[in-house]
Amino acid sequence: MPSGLRIYGSAQLLRSAAFRLAMLQALLFALIALMLFLVSWLAARHYIENQLRQAITDETGEMASLPASRRPASVQRALHQVPKNPFDYSLFSAHRDLIAGDLLNEPAAGWTTLEQREPRKDTDAVRRILVLGTVLEDGSMLVVGRDLASVDDLDTLFKSAFTWAGLAAVLLALAGGMVTAGGYLRRVEAIAVAAARIAAGDLGTRVPVTGRSDEFDRLAFALNSMLERIQSLVEGLRQVSNDIAHDLRTPLTHMRQRLEAATSEAKSMEDYGKACERALADADRVLETFAALLRIAKIESRQRRAGFTYVGLSRLLESLVDDYRPVLENEHRVLNAEIAPDAHVHGDALLLTQMFVNVLENALHHTPRGTPVALKLSMADHGYRVVIEDAGPGIPVEDRTRVLKRFVRLEASRTSPGSGLGLALVAAIADLHGIALTLDDAKPGLRVQLDFIEGRNE
């Protein structure tokens, strides 16, 4: 594994942002569970207490409807029916003396909760009783109550159930958070490992893609696109360095040989002058090559996009046709032009002119005398299309991508002057403007197709 990287352990996992998010979710879930418990508990308790109050009220109504002379006996009979009869009773006189019943404390009129020891069993347990005190027509007070044990049992059941359920839910949330955090950290680790390998010089490394189309896959696609661009630029730089060393060595060697020959063999000023002229020609060739390289580099840096304006493409091509038609006619060639009117594109007029000039110069220099050249501007579904064709030898299919790179010259062109940068400059300008460049077979000859796609260069 690259230096500085290690697999996440438990300590790193607990410190991760994903685990903190899982903890926050677990806490939020616990709060929601607590609120659910409170609402459910209060609703259930309220329902049961209402049922108890209704039962006590009904029982009080039945007892109160009895004649006053029969009430003490009815209270005693009801108490002897326990446990079939779940109610507690007491009857107090008008002076609040206990006449009958098992509720010893004299409650106030209305609803009250009493606590008293269990009189029916040998136990010290304290009972909580919900009672209703009712003052009757003769001044006596009838008290009817019912044990709150069912309500207390419900409280215990709810507390126990929600405690265990809440604890289980929190533990499951934490476990899920650990699993989620581990998955996130593995994806982050994969990206970090790929970045470390790239930093170590392995430009072919790519961030793995799972195919789930999630946010990590989108990030991986973006990073891989960036890495492909970086690799292309680095390999291009390496290739350019090699090509510069190879292609400039010849004119520099010739320059040195001629100067050396002039130094040792020249016998007059005229000989010196001729040697210097040839050396200057070689120097101009080297400077032209460097100037073309600088233009390509500047274009590829996209610095020229700031100066883009709407360019009259039809007028620009008509002007080029007027300039090149006499040149071609001098070599017994024909330039056939078919230009759609009022075509406008967004771009740099000087660079577009340079692009078309290079294509025409390529057709002029690499085809035999008398070979016709055709230029056509037409509307297309995507925008505008410019096609320049010649009837020369063309370019083999396997070389059509390669000739768009710097310093690439086919064997058939080695005897003609040039640096192999013409079509590379065309490709750079086309890429800057978002133009789709295609080299194809004109049957015979080369077909250069330039598609101006609307919206790609704005």
Key phrases:
histidine kinase, transmembrane, transferase, disordered N terminus, single chain, Heat Shock Protein 90, 458 residues, kinase activity, HisK_dim/P_dom, 9 helices, rod-shaped, alpha+beta, Helix Hairpins
SSE topology sketch:
Elements: H1 10-14, H2 17-64, H3 71-80, E1 87-92, E2 98-101, E3 110-117, E4 126-135, E5 141-147, H4 149-199, H5 215-265, H6 269-300, E6 309-312, H7 313-330, E7 335-339, E8 344-347, H8 349-365, E9 373-380, E10 383-390, H9 422-433, E11 435-441, E12 446-453
Parallel strand pairs: 7-9
Antiparallel strand pairs: 1-2, 1-5, 3-4, 4-5, 6-8, 9-10, 10-12, 11-12
Helix pairs in contact: 2-4, 5-6, 6-9, 7-8, 8-9
How would you describe this structure to a colleague?
- Helix content is 53%, strand content 17%.
- The chain has 458 residues and is an alpha+beta fold.
- Among the domains are: 215-300, Helix Hairpins; 304-453, 2-Layer Sandwich (Heat Shock Protein 90), CATH 3.30.565.
- The strands form 3 sheets. A 5-stranded antiparallel sheet has the order 2-1-5-4-3. It has a 5-stranded mixed sheet with strand order 7-9-10-12-11, covered by helices on one side. The chain has a two-stranded antiparallel ribbon with strand order 6-8.
- Helix 5 (215-265) packs antiparallel against helix 6, helix 7 (313-330) packs parallel to helix 8 (349-365) and helix 8 packs antiparallel against helix 9 (422-433).
- One of its GO terms (molecular function) is kinase activity.
- Residues 243-456 form the Histidine kinase domain.
- It catalyses: ATP + protein L-histidine = ADP + protein N-phospho-L-histidine.
- Its main location: membrane.
